[in-house]
């Protein structure tokens, strides 16, 4: 069993001490050091109102210019500032890991989650026989630096990014000179550096500029030539190698297709004395893992997740002259920890040294600085227990910032690999899926616009080559066949094929809502006349006032219900197995009652909403010339034919209707459904798509502004009818062309958005 050290430093003149109150998390308090009684004074606004003079009329007396309002807000925050001894802050727990615990990073994380949630972070000391390696050869490494002007960190304006490159030798020498200049010694104490750092940040009267080699994308082509060859070395495949850490069993990040630097691929940091990382939470409220390779210590300040909203409020008021988004999400605003403490926010501290990990919990605000020349490596962590906090990030980011990866894409990645997880993890997934289904049902039920399922008809003959078109549009290559195989496999009776289809679609290009920046994971609203794509909840703000709006969706509602049933079946099987072997819940952490917190509509109700769609892939039928179905589908065909009095000859539904979740027949045809002759397709139907590509290749036109597409405004021409008549018959190529063009435009814009965000 690991030894957990929860060090609480106390002294007679301590500036901070832990206090325990009934039903509350232990928090530090402060004593004033200015000769007062030591009680925390709460700055309270006077309740007395000032009456304006009566001899003249006051116009707009309640209006105050923006700068004045910002100054007032900041003064209210700073007036609570106390002088404290930073070294007396309560330390976060230190866990001395055993060799057995170190075998599984995610289990280790979950084991100490109660400490992480209470303190915001945990310091981890690896077993004595464990050894790491820095992934880059720092003797040869060249990198660009981030200049930090300390006096402007509190204003969010202390950062610049010069174009020149530095080396570790230059960084080491600059650090040595700075230490001698500022401290008269090459080896000052942590407390000396700490006090100096916060004095400069708070007083703002120093012109000191330091350089930080931050956010170095270790496994990018830029640093390929500096990578250390670990072939054959045990550390190469060690799960605690931060290259492998996000891919550990139990981590949702292991299922991501792409690489997101700093999230599922580590960043390296080469620091010098007084370089900072400002107050922030991780992207999507992921957990953070930071390892100290070598060099001087790094000092951390951490706020527990439960107090994150309070930190956001302080940051917004402290930097009221800027937008709230900048204050909270820019990673450029440094506020002294005593300001937070004086405003009733508990702050914990730790000193990270060589060979130590720091785990920061989801939505735990943290900041700090480097005591001297050092090297750290960091990545993110997303166990399934992160899902509730991940959803909170989705809500918080709405209208404020973009997500680095769609929350529901993360959910789907775990769901589609549900066999890798235990009962408690499945419980989290069921709750998240139930939330998604409940929200989508409400949204789709609330609109009267036509519903169209995403679809690309690839068999257009020579009129328009969709495969080549999408290959040209996508810089990384878009696999049209894989996309359509996934769309059609949503109707497969085989659970494995169905799950694979859900996974492929969840990782397919996804456009963000142009108003609130939320990823349009399940559905979106658009129209033929402009590129604007919004989520259904933002439908009122779509700029086009036409009557031709449509809802384009990725998954039928019944697909989500089927996923929930698959998870519930597995959950019950695992619980039954545990009961059979008399396993106690405390031994597994499983919650054996898995009742969704959100109301799940019945199959019939969901089917009614799905059936409103003008176009659904499961309704596609072959032409009468198509081959007849196999006998095992006879009953299904009779039912289908009874619904359509037009054909006199039995026709085969290429993809069976997903009207129930337990009677779904697998597709027996390719993605090129022979529902129409290629000669029926008019090449002029796709002139709008060709024009968009020509627009993107036109070098004579001015470069598009930030919010403009390189394709220009793609106004969909004929056929773009939303008449129910053209969708009533699957052999009507006008309907297929319409839904194909809507889907093409969505994918084109989503791919463009992805390429811009990756720059």
UniProtKB/TrEMBL annotation:
Give the GO cellular component terms, alphabetically: chromatin; nucleus
- Localization of this protein: Nucleus
Record organism: Babesia divergens
Q: Return the PANTHER family for the record.
A: LYSINE-SPECIFIC DEMETHYLASE, PROTEIN JUMONJI
Region called Disordered, residue ranges: 13-37
Q: Which Gene3D superfamilies match?
A: Cupin
Question: Is Nucleus one of the keywords?
Answer: yes
The UniProt keyword set, sorted, is: Nucleus
Instruction: List, alphabetically, the Pfam families matched.
Output: JmjC (PF02373), JmjN (PF02375)
Q: Name one GO molecular function term.
A: histone H3K4me/H3K4me2/H3K4me3 demethylase activity
Q: Where is the composition biased (Polar residues)?
A: 13-22
Chief location = nucleus
Q: Does the keyword Nucleus apply?
A: yes
Q: Residue limits of the JmjN domain?
A: 92-133
- What this protein is called in its record is JmjC transcription factor
